[in-house]
Every structure is written in C-alpha cells, then in structure tokens.
C-alpha cells in the first residue's frame, strides 16, 4: 500500500484539503507526492526519510533543504527554485510550489548554467552558518589517488604530492559563501516557462560556485547520468555562467576551474551513488573491478575526468605534474581495458 501523504491539520489550515494525491518517483531518502487540492490548486509534498543507506541523517537533510529553499527565495524573478509554502519539522515535511516541467531541450546547457550562477550569487559572507560549508577533497583522497596510480604501475612524479596538498588548501571553502545546490544534476533542474529551477536541496552548502560550474566540464560527478560536454556547448555554458555571475556581483568568478576539476578527480566517492559514499576507498576498487552507476562504469567516468584534468593542467603553473600523471593514468586504463566507452554526450541527456 502506498504511504499516505503526511499533511497534518496545521498544513491543511494553510493549504486546504487534498482532493487527490499521486506518489512520485524519488530517491530512497525521501517520499514525494503531487497533491491536487479541493480548490483546484496543486502542490508538491516532500517528506525526508532516513532511507538510502546513509544512516539516520534525515533531520540534517531536512534542515539543509528548508534553509536552502529559504535562501533561494531571495531570487528576483525568474525564481531559481520552487517556493516553500509550508513546513512540518516534526514529520520532516515540506510543501512546495508545483512546477510545470516542460522537459529537456536540445539547447539546455546555457539556461542551466545561467540559473546555476543566479543561485550561487544569492548569498554572501553575512550568510555564514546558515548552511554547512562545502566539504572538499581531503588528504586521504589525495593519497588514494596516488595509490591508484601506483597500483596501475604508473610512476608518480615527485612533485605531485605537494601539488595535491596545495590543491586541497586552495579548495578550502572558508573564504566563499555561494549557495551551492549540492547535486546540480540533470533531473534536479526543471525547465519551466520562466526558466530553469532547481529542486532537491538536501545536500546544499555554502562554498565556491566554481565547484558546481565544474560539473559541466568534468562530467557531472555526483550524477548517475554522467555525460561529456565539449566544444561550443561547453563554451556557451561556461560563458553564460561567468557573464551572469559578473552581472549580479560585479566581480569575476573567483578561483581556478582546473582546481575545481582536479578536486572532483581525486574523490573516490564521486564514482558511486550517495548511498555507497563514505564506506570504502572506491579508487582502490578500480584496478580490480569495474562497477556501474547508471549506464556508465567507474573506469569510464574516471578516464573522462583524467582527460579533462590532463588537458586543463598541461600548462598549469601549480598542477603541471598532476596533469602529466592524469594523462599517464588515463592511457594505462585504456591500455588495460580497451573496450572502455567515452561518456555519452550532452545531446543524449536522459528524458525524465
């Protein structure tokens, strides 16, 4: 039997009585309903659960999403997220504006990037503490990446450990306060008549927006539907993001895109879905097994990321050796497993 939509008396007094409810597909970490009200309106009801294998963190994810939606409500029209219409903290329930999704378009990337920049630009230093700081790669991630190279019999240039230590320091989120979505993947962006709006803010944080702009180039690292964006679509998306950020803040986007991409490369947890993160060293699994997430394997994801970092860091002052190592590891992976496929391109974005 489908679970009953959890609208209590207090929410009913604000929203009205449900006439019809439909349970929608969602992650194991939440339940989502489309609710048609007796007055003819429609809303979305979302309840955060403790499912999904991530432990009893439902209260924290609920608090994050509510806080992020309230911050996102600052956006001038067009909005960048659904309006938060009501909350029931005791039951981890939120009632959201219903959005009419027009579905994906072939030229979806510039609109996605523009809305992402608008989301990121909503917050600043005065908002410190309203959300957790973004969690970047650690020294353990760096060591896992080096161990992967050694396991594949790829020599590690002597300067790479110091380059990785410097990278981790530069990715410290402390100086940055952009409103990060946390999982800005295809499917969490809805194309509406007023532009792209983002949903599912359970992993929202404050940090440098560049780490989410990097999704476009590095292959959407926290998404089951990893994809490759190159050429004109890549340039158009990154230009749209930078131009929007500049128009809203009066400044250039801070940081280095090569740093952001390299940070995603060395994170083994970015090879698996959220339920399996923070469990084992997933980079250590790569030489002995290839594991799939969605329709792409871990080795295929990794080869793409290695190629991106190799290209970005070829002439980089602070990551030159890491670029050479990335190229060598990618070549070794392709040599050992020649049937590895390139990531699907952005024009094959899955329809939801």
Low-confidence stretches: none
Could you state the order of secondary-structure elements as H and E?
HEEEHEEHHHEEEEHHHHEEHH
Name the assembly state.
single chain
Residues in helix, %: 25-40%
Gross morphology is globular
Q: What is the tally of beta strands? A: 11
Mean pLDDT: 92
Helix count, DSSP H or I runs of 4 or more residues: 11
The biggest sheet, with number of strands, parallel, antiparallel or mixed sense and barrel status, is:
5 strands, antiparallel
List the strand order in the largest sheet: 1-2-3-5-4
Using the CA coordinates, give the radius of gyration. Answer: 21 Å
Structural class: alpha+beta
Beta content comes to 5-15%
State the separation between the terminal residues, measured CA to CA. 25 Å
In brief, what are we looking at here?
With 352 residues, the chain is of the alpha+beta class. It is 38% helix and 14% strand.
Word description of this protein:
This protein has a 5-stranded antiparallel beta sheet. A two-stranded antiparallel sheet has the order 6-9. A two-stranded antiparallel sheet has the order 7-8. 38% of the residues lie in helices and 14% in strands. The mean pLDDT is 92. The longest helix has 19 residues, at 231-249. The chain is built from 11 helices and 11 strands. Strand 1 and strand 2 (30-37) form a beta hairpin. It has helices at 9-15, 58-72, 109-120, 139-151, 160-170, 210-218, 231-249, 257-265, 282-285, 298-313, 320-336, and strands at 18-24, 30-37, 42-48, 84-88, 93-97, 178-180, 189-192, 195-198, 205-207, 292-293, 296-297. The protein is an alpha+beta fold and 352 residues long. It is globular, with a radius of gyration of 21 Å.
């Amino acid at each position: 039997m489908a679970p009953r939509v959890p609208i209590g008396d207090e929410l009913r007094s604000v929203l009205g009585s449900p006439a019809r409810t439909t349970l929608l597909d969602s992650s194991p970490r939440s339940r989502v309903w489309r609710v048609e009200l007796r007055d003819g309106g429609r809303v979305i009801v979302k309840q955060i659960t403790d499912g999904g294998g991530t432990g009893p963190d439902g209260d924290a994810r609920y608090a994050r999403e509510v806080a992020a939606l309230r911050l996102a409500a600052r956006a001038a029209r067009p909005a960048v997220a659904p309006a938060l219409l009501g909350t029931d903290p005791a039951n981890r329930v939120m009632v959201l504006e219903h959005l009419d999704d027009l579905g994906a378009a072939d030229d979806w990337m510039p609109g996605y990037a523009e809305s992402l920049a608008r989301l990121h630009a909503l917050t600043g230093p005065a908002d410190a503490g309203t959300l957790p700081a973004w969690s970047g790669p650690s020294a353990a991630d760096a060591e896992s990446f080096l161990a992967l190279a050694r396991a594949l019999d790829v020599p590690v240039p002597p300067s790479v450990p110091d380059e990785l230590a410097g990278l981790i320091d530069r990715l410290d989120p402390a100086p940055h306060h952009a409103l990060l979505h946390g999982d800005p993947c295809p499917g969490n962006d809805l194309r509406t008549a007023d532009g792209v709006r983002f949903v599912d803010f359970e992993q929202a944080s404050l940090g440098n927006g560049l780490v989410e702009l990097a999704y476009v180039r590095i292959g959407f690292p926290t998404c089951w539907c990893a994809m490759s964006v190159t050429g004109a679509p890549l340039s158009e998306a990154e230009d749209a993001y930078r131009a929007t950020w500049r128009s809203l803040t009066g400044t250039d986007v801070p940081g280095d895109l090569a740093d952001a991409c390299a940070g995603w490369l060395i994170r083994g947890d970015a090879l698996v879905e959220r339920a399996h993160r923070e469990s084992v060293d997933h980079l250590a699994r790569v030489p002995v097994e290839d594991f799939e997430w969605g329709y792409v394997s871990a080795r295929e994801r990794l080869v793409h990321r290695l190629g991106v970092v190799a290209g970005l860091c070829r002439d980089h002052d602070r990551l030159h050796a890491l670029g050479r190592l990335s190229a060598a590891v990618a070549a070794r992976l392709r040599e050992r497993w020649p049937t590895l496929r390139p990531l699907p391109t952005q024009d094959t974005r899955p329809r939801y």
